[in-house]
Amino acid sequence: MSEIRFLDGLGGIPAADWDALVPDGNPFVSHAFLSGMEAKGCLREDYGWRPYHLAILDGGRLVAAAPTYLKGNSHGEFVFDFSWAAAWERAGGDYYPKLLVAAPYSPVPGPRLLVRESLDAEINRNRLTAALVDEADRLGLSSIHANFLAEADLPAFDDRWLARADYQFHWHNRGYTDFDEFLAALARKKRKNIRQERAHAAASGLTLEMRGGDTLGDAEWRQIHALYELTFDMKGNHAALTARFFQYLGHTMGARVQVALARDGADIVAMALFLRSADALYGRYWGASVELSGLHFELCYYRGIEYAIREGIARFEPGAQGEHKLARGFLPTLTHSRHYIAHEGFRQAVAAALVQEAAHREAYKDELMTHSPYADR
Q1: Is the pLDDT of residue 259 over 70?
Q2: d(CA 356, CA 337)
Q3: How far is the C-alpha of 332 from the C-alpha of 325, rounded, in Å?
């Protein structure tokens, strides 16, 4: 017998059952990452996050799931619908709460419709999207948003869902044996600039290293979190992730967490935090209490590229936005989201806006590619 449930947290789902549905080991939809955010104070209703995970069970066995949230705002999503919300509320509607299928605070493409890879995989993905629409209609919600979808998820979204896309900058491993071989693939000017930036960082007098999360102690994690918090505060952003969550990541996810560190003696003065799967490295958070030429690029990009080459990792995704990444070997890569708008008139208005947005997006990508850093462009 099939059963559809919406859950107010992952506490009642065994980690092994949930993770068996994650096909590529993507850390951002793993049970450890999502349940850790819930347990360690990162997801709170006053932040606009209420867990509402979709689970489908057949004969009591979890066969499909989607990390889902009732959202009271649009913060922490990175697929921006603020203008949609403002338009709907000017028309007298309530845009919030809405349903969101996503990895919280993480603009990382990956599976969102979690199913066991089997002959029933496509059927179960379709069951998930149908259940989401049924629930949104039952609750009278304005919309559902599924962000940063894997390619395998896309066919499950029928024409009731609006398609939206954007570009991020990703680095792809062409089988490089070391960092110098990667540099050799770049145009001469780009290669020279990177060497200069790395030389500035090396001459800083700081000790630079890459460490696995399982090798760092609690005091080090507190320093790392303090740098993350300081940098978010300096930019006027809300640092939603707690120190308890950072420590939890190190203890629970171990070497799947990597941190590039800069030390001044015993003090950590800059850091870049990464997570990894079997075939991808994901750059997530940067923090620093010093400003030194080249240090940000060294920790956030070049140490990550070196690690990916050493570990044989196929791609490195350093995070959302940032045209400056192009000059450092990261190329524009398409990302996908899907959006269900309940009101037909509003849906048509959003659809028209997305057509215009898509035309600008493709022109932007064409312009970017004229500036490819690679010698064989």
Answers
A1: yes
A2: 16
A3: 9
